[in-house]
Amino acid sequence: MQRIDTDVVIVGAGAAGLTAATELVKAGREVVVLEARDRVGGRLWTGEIDGAMLEIGGQWVSPDQDALIETLADLGLETYERYREGQNVYIAEDGERRLFEGEIFPVPARTEGEIVGLIDKLDALVAEIDPDAPWTHPRAKELDEISFAHWLETQTHDVEARLNIGMFIAGAMLTKPTHAFSALQALLMAASAGSFSHLVDADFILDKRVVGGLQRVPLGLAERLGDRVRLNQPVRTVRWEADAAAGAAAVVAVTDELEVHAREIVLAVPPVLVDRISYDPPLPRRQHQLHQHISMGFVIKVHAVYETPFWREQGLSGTAFSPYELCHEAYDNTNHGDPRGTLVGFVSDEAADEVFELTAEERKSRILESLAHYFGDQAKHPVVYYESDWGSEEWTRGAYAASFDMGGLARYGADLRTPVGPIRFACSDMAGKGYQHVDGAIRMGRLVAEQILEELA
């Protein structure tokens, strides 16, 4: 067993952990980053599948993501706009294919009025929410004790309006059914993006991509850190002291090969993985409790690559939505400078459960059939097809991110980031602004580094 002594040990080489390490090194501190996988990036992963570059994990950049945009500039990475010219597609309950432009779906006038009204109500509520502390809202407990589905039912009897508004939070963000998370959790999701209106505006929330893939951010940060980053090192045990002498090692992170002794440790992993580590002494009761009330969502990200972006020839943008379809949303995901065309679609929560009961070929057929409802029979014949299944990833266990169960956010949210002795926590799942996004991970990495530097000063 090799022993390493350092100032700070960081568990997890995703955007949060690598940002924290970068900031600490800039300030003259020594760090060691331990990563369980054989690669850096966490939920950012650009892979080559059958000759096609696919962003298997996160990929988009929105204009409000200041921390991410600053990091892209610092690393010298270029971005390009998502293709969005032409008409969008909406599939109605009866299967009718309707073309539209703008943000509001082509639904009956009464339903459109209800959708607009719900967006206005949600924007008003979101404006009252502090994304860094949603539990401080005067009605936090009340809003956290009712599901988002129930809240929507209290606002309108229009089922199609409820399904479409729910889709933007449930299917597109939290990837859980609307009955499985609270109204407060939904408001946090919207507040983290600035407003609910931002979430329904695909041209805002899914604005740009990085040339070469968003994983270039953690790859670039890791390259600068050099051999401070150790791959294939899952941390099995953390031994810690609450009151170590000043300047002394207060924590030891143990892998199968290494013992890293440090004054502080950052667990830069999704909250659902925190209790995969053994602690000596055990974490406090509060930590044990809160980690039983938080879980990952589940979504299949489907990549379909075609010889050409054929939908553009039909005057279509590649953007499509329907709360009635297996793929509830789809986008033109063609890579920068690639003559081929790529569609990306998403199958969320209970629908994803259902198709994973099928064989791989049956599942592929069902998913491509859904894409064909939007874009025609050509969508059934990709030259490359791939499903991102983060639920099977040993060191992630779901997607896109973790959220609390009913009542959990108001009850435990304030403890999610609270340090335990020398143990600190940083992850996009804990962010306020940028919650669930790379921007939030970078913000959390910066925040925890700042706190550690103050502690070690």
Automatic annotation (TrEMBL):
<protein>
    <submittedName>
        <fullName>Putrescine oxidase</fullName>
    </submittedName>
</protein>
<feature type="domain" description="Amine oxidase">
    <location>
        <begin position="16"/>
        <end position="453"/>
    </location>
</feature>
<dbReference type="InterPro" id="IPR050703">
    <property type="entry name" value="Flavin_MAO"/>
</dbReference>
<dbReference type="InterPro" id="IPR002937">
    <property type="entry name" value="Amino_oxidase"/>
</dbReference>
<keyword id="KW-0560">Oxidoreductase</keyword>
<dbReference type="InterPro" id="IPR001613">
    <property type="entry name" value="Flavin_amine_oxidase"/>
</dbReference>
<dbReference type="InterPro" id="IPR036188">
    <property type="entry name" value="FAD/NAD-bd_sf"/>
</dbReference>
<comment type="similarity">
    <text>Belongs to the flavin monoamine oxidase family.</text>
</comment>
<dbReference type="Pfam" id="PF01593">
    <property type="entry name" value="Amino_oxidase"/>
</dbReference>
